[in-house]
Amino acid sequence: MTDMKLSLRTAVPALLLAALALVPVYALLAQQPFYLTLFGRIVIFAIAAVSLDLLIGYGGMVSFGHALFLGLGAYVVGIMGYHGIDNGFAHLGVTLALCAVVGAITGLISLRTSGIAFIMITLAFAQMFYFLAVSLKQYGGDDGLSIASGSRFGSVTLDNPNVLYYAAFLVLCLCLWAGSRLVKARFGMVVRGSRQNDRRMRALGFATLRYKLVAYIISAMVCGVAGMLYANLTHFTSPAYMAWTASGDLIVMVVLGGFGSLVGPVIGSTAMLLIEELLKGYTEHWMIIFGPLIVMAVLLSRRGLYGLLGDLEVRLARRAHPVEGKA
Fold first, then answer.
1. In this structure, how many other beta carbons lie within 10 angstroms of the beta carbon of residue 155?
2. Is 123 a domain residue?
3. Contact between residue 270 and residue 16 where contact means Cβ atoms under 8 Å apart
4. Any transmembrane segments, and where (predicted)?
5. I need a surface site. Which of 92, 108, 227, 319 has the fewest CB within 10 A?
6. What's the pLDDT tens digit per position in 287-300?
7. Segment 91-102, tens digit of pLDDT
């Protein structure tokens, strides 16, 4: 039963990633370039959700201002592009450096608290930068800023939808691989142990604040890269990218897919954005339907859609082997 459960939890995410890898091929054959935009958005938000899962799922740090870093990455592309700088390496370097610095400063303050206080402080920082972006009238203010050209990496430019999609998909796969290695390493064990009992971990000699701060900074940098990709996808950046509602969407993706699993947020972002797009085609009041669907999914399994895979395998195994199930 354990082998089947593990195989199901491995097979479904693998099939999902394979399907995402084939989206450009299907879009070309079906002559539907819209699919590249839709699934490009899914992949980019999956990157941001995976970065948030490192905080929520493994560190127990519920950040309600994580979209701050998504917005910072987008504004780096927008502002540098506004001044005629389209060098992708410069965009990436500035994004990583800026998100690391902002993550370090906000993290040092936020991580000295926990629970509701941590949530509110991260939200406050995000709102501060949101209103800062609104005040930047030179760069569009509340109306946002159009981006004339995408990030250029030598002869490769992210203006090409296929290039952008596969660049985002490659980043997602890299995040999943590196994330799985990170959470299984000593660093990840300390962060997870701190979530369970921070006082005990400190008594054992671990400087848990430093470990959590590093996790916070890594998460911020990855989310910043997602913001950079998102700006290239939309050719636009706006203060709305770092609004509290955007942070709420990321949390929903993580919880819906299953936190503490890395692949769960990928499933959650795919399910959320596909259902959202489907419902928008039927009614402009799609949130009235979407809200109860999220509640139902969470009630069915507190571990999200990814957790449902394990629950489903257990039920199927019990039906197939009732005696073993009772034992």
1. 5
2. yes
3. yes
4. 37-56, 63-83, 89-109, 116-136, 163-183, 204-230, 250-274, 286-305
5. 319
6. 888 888 888 877 77
7. 999 999 999 999
Is residue 200 assigned to a domain?
A: yes
| CATH code, domain carrying 60 | 1.10.3470
User: Hey, which bits of the chain come out as E strands?
Assistant: 145-146, 152-153, 156-157, 236-237
* Three-class SS state of 251: helix
Exposed / middle / buried, residue 315 (Cβ in 10 Å: 0-12, 13-18, 19+) = exposed
How many independent structural domains does the chain possess?
1
pTM score > 0.90 for this model? yes
**Residues 6 or more apart from 175 whose CB is under 8 A from it?**
47, 50, 51, 222
Q: Is 289 left (phi over 0), alpha (psi -120 to 50) or beta?
A: alpha
**Residues in contact with 244: Cβ distance below 8 Å, sequence separation at least 6, in sequence order:** 64, 65, 67, 123, 126, 127, 130
In a domain, 278, yes or no: yes
